[in-house]
Write a structure and sequence with these properties.
The chain has helices at about 1-5, 25-30, 50-60, 75-90, 100, and strands at about 15, 35, 40, 70. It has about 100 residues and is mainly alpha-helical. The protein has a two-stranded parallel sheet with strand order 1-2. Strand 1, helix 2 (about 25-30) and strand 2 form a beta-alpha-beta unit. Helix 3 crosses helix 4. The radius of gyration is 16 Å and the shape is globular. The mean pLDDT is about 90.
Amino acid sequence: AFKEITKKEMPLIYREPAGSWSYRSLKIVQDMGYRTYFWSAAYMDFGENVSKAEALRQMMSMHHNGVIYLLHPKNKGNYLALSDFIDEMRKLGYTFATVDEIG
């Protein structure tokens, strides 16, 4: 589906489920040609009841150069806050890119 929509090959990017990893699993995915990335900012957003204001507060409190956020899609507050978060970060001079773009 990715290739059909984008007309590009999907980048070989891997994230360990739940951040649970081993040297063996990292080696296996590396041997398969994947690059592994981990998040550097996360908060307890597993449920559906985090508000937009709380999600924005949490995201703003954790920013740093090169940050990779772990945001769960089940949490409505995350996606409601995302546009405001992006606007605020751009005002602070940050830019956004996908992990395959930043290497």
